[in-house]
Amino acid sequence: MSAGSTLVVGGGFVGTAVARRLAAAGESVTVASRRRPAAHLPVGDGVRWDALDATDPGACRRLVTRLKPRRVVLVHGPSDVTWCEEHPGQALRAHTAAAANLSSAAGDARLLMISTDNVFDGSRPDNAEDSPVSPANAYGHAKLCAEETLLGGAADAVVLRVSLVYGHEPPDAGKWLNFFAVCAHRLLRGETVAVPDDQWTTPVLVDDVAEVTAAVLHAGTPLPPVLHLGGPDRVSRAAWASLVAGTLGAPPHLVAPTSRAGTRYASRPENTCLTSSLLGRLPATKAIAVRGVHEGARSLAAAFTTAG
Ligand SMILES: NC(=O)c1ccc[n+]([C@@H]2O[C@H](COP(=O)([O-])OP(=O)(O)OC[C@H]3O[C@@H](n4cnc5c(N)ncnc54)[C@H](OP(=O)(O)O)[C@@H]3O)[C@@H](O)[C@H]2O)c1
Question: Euclidean distance between the first and final Cα of the chain, in Å?
């Protein structure tokens, strides 16, 4: 691997999008995860894959010693909020161990960790970088501990907290899909979607996450330790699902607004919304136009209606 390369730890929905974006710009990129990325997540030309369990300190040290990346992106799991709530100890150990292992192995490389709005308790409609943290759930707690580990242990580290990410995923992806994809597939099959009207988010397209991640990775130093990335629209899940239905031509009555209590969204706080007081001022990111939910839905419609 060349001196200017990037290691992306995590080959899932967000990690493969980041890897593709970097490789498309000609960068040498390695994705590392325990298993190869799934077939529906092609890492693309110019991206290598290596096996890595990021909770194993020796494995992290050996991989980083071999690859010598200039940049490392931590975008691994566990990512399922519901699973983390049921396995809080495992979630905490996995996220903090990976942050500790990679910050200690990576020397002076830039480390960027994709974190979450679940580090906030959801009592405020929006959270900027200087809002006080108070994790909403086990997932948010694990991610916050990992943030602190990374920022305390790496020479050049930045945490990019991202709101709910969405994009195309096929129905047979073999995992719980992102919210947009779940709604789109069900609505196109004529199925009802029961979605909370009491849980608010600022969704971001996965390609926009990749764009901002690439810009922050290559930004000049010094960077603020924490950056927020939320989409420009604050929507309830129910309103967003209605927008998806409208864009895909599905009957509006298929969207059934409900309370989040008793649904898989019960452990999510009322608000998982992020604003940024910094991203629009950084030279590297200020020109990036993060798309809102209308434009996002229009950009994805063809993928769902033709590819499935
Ligand atoms: N998706 C979102 O809306 C969102 C929003 C904010 C932040 N994030 C953060 O972004 C990260 C990735 O999210 P995602 O949606 O891309 O998740 P995902 O699709 O579930 O992918 C997770 C990836 O991490 C790998 N992984 C899990 N444990 C690992 C380990 N011990 N060592 C190495 N790789 C490991 C998984 O592969 P193996 O299991 O094969 O190792 C998989 O490739 C998470 O940390 C999440 O907190 C996501």
Answer: 36
CB 158 within 8 A of CB 226: yes
Identity of the amino acid at 73: V
Burial of 126 (0-12, 13-18, 19+ CB in 10 A): middle
Ligand 1 pocket member 76 (CB < 6 A): yes
Nearest CA to ligand 1 atom 5: 164
Nearest CA to 11 among 57, 70, 84, 73? Answer: 73
- Ligand 1 atom with the smallest distance to the CA of 139 is 47
3 beta partners: none
Whose tokens are 């498309």? That residue is 24
Ligand 1 centroid to 76 CA: how many Å? Answer: 3
Q: Position of tokens 């990335």?
A: 229
Contact 164, 202 (CB under 8 A): yes
Q: What is the pLDDT of residues 170-206, one digit of tens each?
A: 998 877 899 999 999 999 999 999 999 999 999 999 9
Q: Tell how far CA 263 is from the center of its chain.
A: 22
HSE value, Cβ hemisphere, 13 Å, CA-based, for 188: 19
Using the atom order of ligand 1, give the atom closest to the CA of residue 76.
Answer: 24
Structural domains of the chain in order of their starting residue, each with its CATH number: 6-167+204-230 (3.40.50.720)
203 CA to centre of own chain:
11
pTM comes to 0.96
Which residues face 226 on adjacent strands?
159
Note the pLDDT tens digit of each residue in 74-122: 999 999 998 999 999 999 999 999 999 999 999 999 999 999 999 999 9
What is the position in ligand 1's atom list of the atom closest to the CA of 118?
Answer: 6
State the pLDDT confidence band at 40, using cuts at 50, 70 and 90: low
In this prediction, residues 11-32 reach a mean pLDDT of 94
